[in-house]
Amino acid sequence: MTLISEIANYALYTQQLSPNCITASKTTQHIDMRLLHLNCQSLNTCRQQLSTYVDTKDVKIMCLSETWFKGTEGSFRNWRAYVRNRPAGSDGYGGVAIFIHPSIKTIPFKLDSDMEAVWCKVVIENKVVILGSVYIPPGKIDHIAKLDQILQNNVPDNTPVVVAGDVNAVSSMWDSKPNISQNSMSYQMGLEVEGLIATHGFHIHNTGHYTYIKKNDTTGVVTK
């Protein structure tokens, strides 16, 4: 198992990203692409700042958590959008999205689940990569098992995969200095995520450095 070297190493964390997010991958391919994962806590609020960042860093793919979109809304420039929002009339928080630059070919990849997750396939240098943006709300430890089942049932062996998400879980695997009780739900969720990573042979791309200082936050990126 080797990482998607450029998708992985160019997972560009901004000051809005906290150590509860995980980005991970599993692939044998070297693919040159710049990807951003962000827990934006309202894309509408940070849209202008994000646009500047995307242009400055030449980001081509964005995986977002907590978009706070409602109903069917959800867009970013003229980029291809894969969006999953909470229903209209709900609290309006949460929500996930993948936005992909028009120069990148994408293929819809719809997976039925009650998780806050959205998926697609991205074609880069004639290689097809499955891409997922996932949000697991605090305390929803059962959603980790649901994510495991999605991967087991829908992702063939040796298929390149990138999963980026805010999973609200704490572990020294992606947080160099976790300061939390081992009896806490966040810690227990971290153990479950560690098991998922081991089961699927994911490589974690988090460096362990804080990108956003906020009590009890955790995020990351993983690829397969």
Please describe the structure with a list of short key phrases separated by commas or semicolons:
224 residues, alpha+beta, Deoxyribonuclease I, Chain A, seven-stranded mixed beta sheet, 4 helices, disordered N terminus
Major beta-sheet overview: 7 strands, mixed
The total of helices stands at 4
Class computed from helices, strands and strand pairing: alpha+beta
Distance between the termini: 8 Å
CATH class: Alpha Beta
Shape: globular
Q: What Rg is obtained from the alpha carbons, in whole angstroms?
A: 16 Å
Oligomer: single chain
Q: Which regions are unreliable across 5 or more consecutive residues at pLDDT < 50?
A: 1-19
Please indicate the percent range of residues in DSSP E strands (runs of 2 or more): 25-35%
Quick synopsis:
The protein is α+β, with helices and mostly antiparallel strands and 224 residues long.
Q: What does the secondary structure layout of this molecule look like, with pairings?
A:
Blueprint: H1 5-9, E1 21-26, E2 35-39, H2 43-57, E3 61-65, E4 80-84, E5 96-100, E6 105-108, E7 116-124, E8 127-135, H3 142-154, E9 161-166, H4 185-200, E10 203-204, E11 220-223
Helix pairs in contact: 3-4
Describe the 3D structure:
This protein has 224 residues and is α+β, with helices and mostly antiparallel strands. It has one domain: Deoxyribonuclease I, Chain A (4-Layer Sandwich), CATH 3.60.10. The chain has four helices and eleven strands. The strands form two sheets. Strands 1, 6, 7, 8, 9, 10 and 11 form a seven-stranded mixed β-sheet that branches. A four-stranded mixed β-sheet has the order 2-3-5-4, with no helix packed on it. Helix 3 runs parallel beside helix 4. The longest helix is centred in the C-terminal third of the chain and has 16 residues, at 185-200.
